[in-house]
Amino acid sequence: MFQGETAITIDDKGRLAIPTSYRELVVRECGNRLVITYNPYEHGCLWLYPQAQWEKVRDQVNALPSAKRVHRNLQLKLVGAATAVEPDGNGRILLPASHRHAAALEKKAVLLGMGTKFELWSEQAHLAQIRQTIGEDEISDDMLDLRL
């Protein structure tokens, strides 16, 4: 559903404009509702889910037994921090200050369409990720079958 990389600006009020190429899709496919939460795996990044996709993820995460610390940590970062947003008439969403601060998001950011969700990266964290290469020792068995 979503793919591509867009450099974006976060204004002084903490708002970002959904790129025009995605606005109609967000209205049509997402009911004009997105859910913002932390990326529990990488610093400098927030995840933005369409409401319906988020509900599936939320239910899977909440079904994990909370007796395990790693499950509680995942529940805290994903479900506990989830915030629903709706783009305004100008296609802007307000990023909660706590989320911006935790992900070190400042004025310049990068929005990535990652299929079923968006990833919102701080410019610095995105550059660091892009500059990393995948080493031969990191290639998984699943990756060996890819024809890139």
UniProtKB/TrEMBL annotation:
**Acyltransferase is among the record's keywords:** no
For the biological process aspect of GO, one term held by this record is: negative regulation of DNA-templated transcription initiation
Keyword flag Nucleotide-binding: no
Enumerate the GO terms in the molecular function aspect: DNA-binding transcription factor activity; transcription cis-regulatory region binding
SpoVT-AbrB domain location, by residue?
A: 5-53, 82-125
Which InterPro entries is this protein grouped with?
A: MraZ, MraZ_C, MraZ_dom, MraZ_N, MraZ_sf, SpoVT-AbrB_dom, SpoVT-AbrB_sf
GO CC field: cytoplasm; nucleoid
Alphabetized, the UniProt keywords read: Cytoplasm, DNA-binding, Repeat, Transcription, Transcription regulation
Question: Which Pfam families does the record cross-reference, listed alphabetically?
Answer: MraZ
Question: Where in the cell is the protein located?
Answer: Cytoplasm, Nucleoid
Q: Which NCBIfam families match?
A: division/cell wall cluster transcriptional repressor MraZ (TIGR00242)
Q: Which family does it belong to?
A: Belongs to the MraZ family.
Question: Assembly state and interactors?
Answer: Forms oligomers.
Return the protein name: Transcriptional regulator MraZ
Please name the source species: Alkalisalibacterium limincola
Gene behind this protein? mraZ
